[in-house]
Design brief:
CATH class of the largest domain: Alpha Beta
CATH architecture of the largest domain: 3-Layer(aba) Sandwich
Mean pLDDT: 93
Number of strands: 15
Number of domains: 2
Shape: globular
Order of helices and strands: EEEHEEEEHHEHEHHHHEHEHEEEHHE
Largest sheet: 6 strands, mixed
Distance between the termini: 36 Å
Number of helices: 12
Strand order of the largest sheet: 9-8-10-11-12-15
Helix content: 25-40%
Radius of gyration: 18 Å
Low-confidence stretches: none
Strand content: 15-25%
CATH topology of the largest domain: Rossmann fold
Length: about 300
Amino acid sequence: MKRAVSISIGSSKRNKAVEVNLFGQPIRMERIGTDGDMEAAAQKYKELDGTVDAFGVGGGDLGLLVEDKWYPLYSVQPMVRFIKKTPVVDGTGLKNTLERKSAPFLENHLAAYLAEKGKKALVMTGADRWGLTRSFLDAGYECVFGDLMFSLDIPIPLRTDSALKRVAALLMPIAGRLPFDWVYPTGDKQEERKPKYTQYFRWATVIAGDCHYIKRYMPDDMSGKIVVTNTTTPEDVELFRRCGVKYLVTTTPTLDGRSFGTNMMEAALIAVSGKGRALTLPEYEEMLAQLHIEPQLQTL
């Protein structure tokens, strides 16, 4: 059986393992959290290197691909320093392929609702989810990107792709060297609620991006909102329901009640491909098409 493992610096409470069949091959997909401990994650990679078919980096990114420019996150890189044999990915490939389907999917399934409420999207962070950014901009949405607000607590909304690229070029050489937990919740911090910049949540029809960011910063009242995200547990879905979210769209498939992160799904595709390396964007596109993988809609 093929095996793909996502080792995450997120909470171990979100651990999950499932066995599925892809392209006629059985594969075990497993998520292992280290509660914010990067060194524990590094040691786990070392332990499993060469014994599994592909690794995912969970709870963090190795870098950001903003259009065609790569910005390393230097504080995360040491986490994978022991890996010598097993291919490792952080979800960037699927963020730039699968997540580009998000806005067209909404148009196909919720066009009347969007026409009534308005095509307005709050993308929690646009620079690290470029496919999501392009998806909404290309579909004609009015967008607010919360990169400065939610990552650096700078109260400046960004509204265009050119603004995102300028900010990334200016700040990422510095921000990429900050401790990762300064810019993203890790471990138990992922379960904390700290609503802020709630006026942009109220303004938007669609709230899109990282599930931890959305849960952490959204207001208690999310009545009528559409949430586009992934890595949702049943508890996350229940929280969205209690807060009044009307529709939940997960960009990765829901397997045994859980939608895994892009890094986990990307590792699974690498594992079943048998290529022993990260795939190209066209290769991901081809596999997604063959598996008929697209976003999934739940009415809450």
